[in-house]
Amino acid sequence: RLRAARIRLDLDPDKGQPSRIESQSGVEFSRVRGADETVVTGENLEAGFAAGTSRLEALTVRERARMVTRSGAADQDAGRDELEAEEIRLRFRSLEDRSVPAELEAERSVRWKTPPRKPQTGAQTAEGSELRADRLKMVYAAGGDSLDSGSATGRVRLAGIALGGAEGSEIRRLEAERARFAFYPGDNRLRDFAAEGQVAVQYRRPPDPEAGRPPQEFHTTSDFLEARLRESDGAVDSVIQRGRFQYQEEGRTARAGRSEYRAETGVMTLEQSPEVSDSSGTTTGERMEYDRKKEIMTVNRRVRSILRPQAGEGGTLFAPASGAASSAPSVVTSDALRHWTAEGRARYSGRVRLMSESGQLDARELEIFDSGERVEASGDLRHLILRAEAAEQGRPARAQGEGAKKASPVTIRAPRMRYFKSENSAHYSGGAVMTSEDATLRSESLDLVLDADGKRVERAAARGHVEVRQGARDARGEMADYYLVPGRFVVTGSPAEILDPERGKSAARRLTFFTSDDKILLENN
Predict the structure, then answer these.
(1) Which end of the chain has fewer surrounding CB within 10 Å, N or C?
(2) Would the pLDDT of 70 be above 70?
(3) Looking at the structure, do residues 251 and 166 belong to the same domain, yes or no?
């Protein structure tokens, strides 16, 4: 059926069949096939027919062209597909002596809107979506009753594509230079789409009142994108992005050569030189997984983190103070990392090494809590701490070149370590051995008390079966305190004992001796 203010009909002179139709002003062309209906409107229409037949071959509508399609009586409540453009062209093929759609093309200000789809049994309703582009081409399946594939070019924008997983999650907006589509057979449900050229995606997750979580959004960009949709409800099941991939969310940025996002699980996998950065630092590895539901990031193989202090933070044994121009950031390397982003908790495992301006820590596992407020390490632990010696005992070191000695290290070995920034101390347990250029100290446990800046060792407190080896002297006791400046040991016990090759063996409740001379003080009070 065709209606317009003006219609011109050309007939085949031999058979009297229509060969061409032209119409202008308020054009409306409708085509009904069973329960399927297509209505095309615009200001100008041209239709061509196969020679000597009434079979439609081509249809072109220009100026505010619009095509509305509803497929199947069962989907009447699902609304209609709507296509708008300045020009719409339909090409038909012959099938069993009748015309069926073969290709559809639209140009200039293209807008294609699909309504919510009626879900299959047990599935949630698929949300409607919208496509905008400069040019659109769609290819119909062989029977002409549904779409098979298509492409769009020129400022392509997709909106309102449902994501699997949390209900209400969606791709709010996708932008690219070009896109390709493929459909499930029968009902025009998208099966997959691919986009390329300056791809930008905006994801949205609805609020979760039970968890007290507000709406969440994250953005990604890349050179290429491939998405797979579920047939049951039309929701996106997976998204793969390649080429200069970048992810941004709430102050966090990730980069990689390739990413894959599984909507049902909420897990994003990054490969090909992945890197993630936030205000606390940057981490790289060979493979990363970020579980957005649980807010856990996992990094595997060749892990390297560069840690920076938060604004206003003071220095610690493992990190420099914020704003310290002369301080280098801390670096952690390991085989694996598990990071609970919401908690500010990170666990490094495997061959772990932490390097800072204060020294170096090696262990099998390192865990950082509350962005460095607490640090724990375990397994073959070796902690090397640099210390600045005074030029003279009891006096602060002067500037380099004026008597200050070269920084000398203190090394601690133990099964476990716990550090608390609030207490300004580190605790080693399970049997500790501390070695310096002055002495070796063994005990069941060892506590290091740091200076006001939290970066240098002022005192070591050893407890339980204490043994001190200082030069040729050996001391034993229940407890010992080692003051690194001015190099003084205080050993207590019942009694404490010291063996000196020149003075022999001495015992008292309290022994005090120095690394700089052979003086020994004995106290029994």
Answers:
(1) C
(2) yes
(3) yes
